[in-house]
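Course assignment 3, question 2. Fill in each field.
Student: A.L.
Task: Predict the tertiary structure for the chain below.
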Amino acid sequence: IEAQTRVAVVGETGSGKTTFAKLLTRLMDPTRGRVLLGDVPLASLSFASLRSRVVMVPQDGFLFDTTVADNVRYGRPDATDDDIQLAFTELGLLDWLETLPDGIRTAVGERGESLSVGEKQLVAIARAYVADPDLLVLDEATSAVDPATEVRLARALDSLTRGRTTLTIAHRLSTAEAADEVLVVDKGVVVQRGSHAELVAVPGVYADLHASWVNQSR
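Answer field:
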């Protein structure tokens, strides 16, 4: 994968998309071969180094039972309140932050129960933003969110991924269409790769998947 490109990984359920994310974050190690970050094998990095260079934003936007600020600070422990406030501003999320009763000092409750699914994703995105990783891994949420949060998520993700090497486990047609490159996975194997325009123009797994997405959106 070229540096500073946005890559979407697509495929049917059970095709092996999530395995990509697990390999890149070392939640799983390959049984053969190596995963390299630049020229450096991931297996040679310390846990602390890996976590600073590779950051994952999971589907559920997992949060701890503390404040918004402290949840963001897990991405970079030395981040000040001003750094965190700036992150929300640069992500275009200041309007959302101002809806919270205590701003970044708002307590989110156990597993972020006081926030919606989409709002938890916003905090997780801010956490990734302050971490400033070399590689960003996104497991796109499948849960429906309200229109206003959907717009905020799209805006924040665009800011987060711009100019950054990003691999997204894609569940939305728009994500695949906007990616610089699409990897199509079937039964654990990359069977196609190319841009959306290139892949949709030829018969194959991607064209079939694209047709299915279009039909579902009608």
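Instructor remarks: The radius of gyration is 18 Å. The chain has a mean pLDDT of 91.
Grade: pending
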